């Protein structure tokens, strides 16, 4: 299966279980890997047979910025659902949502959730 990558998409949003996260917001970073058969798109040089990157980015942006969720897991699940619904060519979506600054003690680069969902 061929892969389309959208890596390091950055958004500012208001997700989290703590009230200050919902009030102050924080950055989120999303990586998206879409698996699809791109042979026909490549052979015909036809965007209609592939995934428009701008539309995929907009789908992710809508999920991350327009609603509030308690869990990063829910954000990732909603992104996968949205992308699989929007692009029938995509057979599998892998979504990684990173939360660089969660309000927990410790030193780390980020916390993240990664999930993979198939087209149903």
Automatic annotation (TrEMBL):
Belongs to the DHNA family. Its EC number is 4.1.2.25. Residues 4-117 form the Dihydroneopterin aldolase/epimerase domain. Pathway: Cofactor biosynthesis; tetrahydrofolate biosynthesis; 2-amino-4-hydroxy-6-hydroxymethyl-7,8-dihydropteridine diphosphate from 7,8-dihydroneopterin triphosphate: step 3/4. InterPro entries: Dihydroneopterin_aldolase, FolB_dom, GTP-CH-I_C/QueF. The gene is folB. It catalyses: 7,8-dihydroneopterin = 6-hydroxymethyl-7,8-dihydropterin + glycolaldehyde. One of its GO terms (molecular function) is dihydroneopterin aldolase activity. Keywords: Folate biosynthesis, Lyase. The keyword Transferase does not apply. It comes from the Bacteria. Catalyzes the conversion of 7,8-dihydroneopterin to 6-hydroxymethyl-7,8-dihydropterin. It comes from Salibacterium lacus. This is 7,8-dihydroneopterin aldolase.
């Amino acid at each position: 299966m061929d892969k389309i990558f959208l890596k390091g998409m950055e958004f500012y949003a208001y997700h989290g279980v703590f009230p200050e996260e919902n009030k102050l917001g924080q950055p989120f970073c999303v990586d998206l890997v879409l698996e699809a058969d791109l042979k026909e798109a490549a052979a015909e040089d036809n965007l209609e047979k592939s995934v428009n990157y701008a539309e995929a980015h907009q789908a992710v942006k809508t999920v991350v910025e327009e609603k509030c969720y308690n869990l990063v897991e829910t954000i990732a699940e909603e992104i996968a659902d949205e992308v699989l619904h929007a692009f029938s060519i995509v057979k599998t979506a892998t979504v990684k949502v990173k939360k660089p600054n969660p309000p927990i003690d410790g030193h780390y680069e980020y916390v993240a959730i990664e999930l993979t969902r198939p087209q149903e």
